[in-house]
Design brief:
The protein is an alpha/beta fold and about 350 residues long. The chain contains twelve helices and 15 strands.
């Protein structure tokens, strides 16, 4: 699955270029708990087609009912209006919050843009597909849109005159190794909105890799990392357990702005990798501080799909800026389990995992 914002904007562009009336809804304010964060977008066509989301579904249904021909002849259904953007608020009262499926105390406000300019949408999509980070500013008086390149991601900004929302290119994942774990992790990354590239020079592994939507390449991993050019919306994960493939790729990745760089392996393998990099590649503990390993969060995972869930959960937490408790760190959790077992005379007599 591609980046959701790009999908929404591309679909809205196609509707408008085909002459279809449509609106763009943006979550601009929330109070209390809300199902979708500020900046979330959805597009609604005149026939009731919807792409994207601003809630769990009930608000989308209300917008369809209000503004499209999908419920023509029922109640107060009407066509999408014309004119400048308008604000609409949901969940003001407890009864309304319950009606629209909002959490207790939750309220959200949307900005509705009617019939956005197809040329401006086409330019925005073109720039996003080219890998740009773009700030889209809407003048509230008349809906006029301006686009400018953004240097850093930023939160939605709203004042009495304008709304500005920053859209970025897809998050990307580069996996080193095309084994079974890579298949599960690539699949999870794709439905989480990442563009996925898998690198493995070993023909026997590439031949067995089948994940529609993922790009499979055969060059040496360190060359692929350089060509991939990881940025702040990229992660690099080594999965081969082979130092000849993993180490140089990881070193290349550590020299980039990738938000996550990590490698699969046990605590012992992780320690050995760090020693190799320090002894043979001139690294220091400081230069390796960003290298994650053993990767994932501790959920007692043993099978490839469970390990993939663990790794994907950690990647998403880092992407979303969520600090993880120490007891969810794989190495910390296993160390604590060993300490607990060493205090138990019966457990001490049992083989350790």
């Amino acid at each position: 699955m591609e980046n959701l914002d790009v999908l929404v904007l591309r679909t809205l562009r196609d509707w408008r270029q085909a002459g279809r009336r449509a609106l763009l809804a943006t979550v601009v304010r929330t109070w209390g708990s809300s199902p979708r964060p500020v900046g979330s977008i959805m597009a609604l066509a005149e026939d009731g087609a919807v792409v994207g989301s601003v809630s769990g579904g009930c608000i989308e249904d209300d917008l369809i009912y209000r503004y499209t021909r999908a419920y023509a002849g029922q109640g107060e259904a009407k066509a999408i209006p014309s004119g400048p953007p308008e604000f609409v608020k949901y969940g003001v009262t407890a009864d309304e919050a319950h009606r629209f499926g909002l959490p207790c105390g939750g309220t959200l406000e949307l900005l509705l843009e009617y019939d956005p300019d197809p040329a401006a949408l086409a330019e925005l999509v073109r720039r996003l597909e080219a890998g740009e980070l773009v700030r889209r500013t809407v003048r509230l008086a008349d809906g006029q849109v301006t686009l400018e390149t953004a240097l850093t991601p930023s939160e939605l900004a709203l004042d009495e005159a304008r709304m500005a929302n920053t859209f970025g290119p897809e998050y990307r994942m580069l996996l080193i190794g095309a084994g079974q774990l890579a298949e599960y992790l690539a699949t999870m990354a794709l439905f989480s909105g990442f563009a996925v590239t898998v690198c493995d020079p070993r023909e026997e592994y590439r031949g067995g890799f089948h994940v529609p939507g993922a790009t499979l390449v055969s060059d040496m991993p360190d060359d692929v990392v350089r060509a991939f050019r990881p940025d702040r919306r990229s992660c690099v994960v080594a999965l081969t357990h082979d130092p000849k493939l993993d180490d140089l790729a990881l070193l290349e990745a550590l020299g980039t702005e990738a938000f996550y760089v990590g490698a699969i392996g046990s605590r012992r393998n992780n320690d050995a990798r760090r020693r190799r990099m320090i002894e043979h590649f001139g690294q220091t503990e400081a230069s390796l501080a960003r290298l994650r390993g053993p990767i994932g969060i501790y959920i007692g995972s043993k099978t490839p799909p469970e390990i993939a869930v663990s790794v994907m959960a950690e990647i998403l937490a880092v992407k979303n800026g969520v600090p993880l408790p120490r007891d969810m760190d794989v190495a910390e959790a296993k160390n604590q389990r060993q300490i607990a077992a060493s205090d138990d005379p019966v457990a001490c007599a049992l083989p350790q995992p």
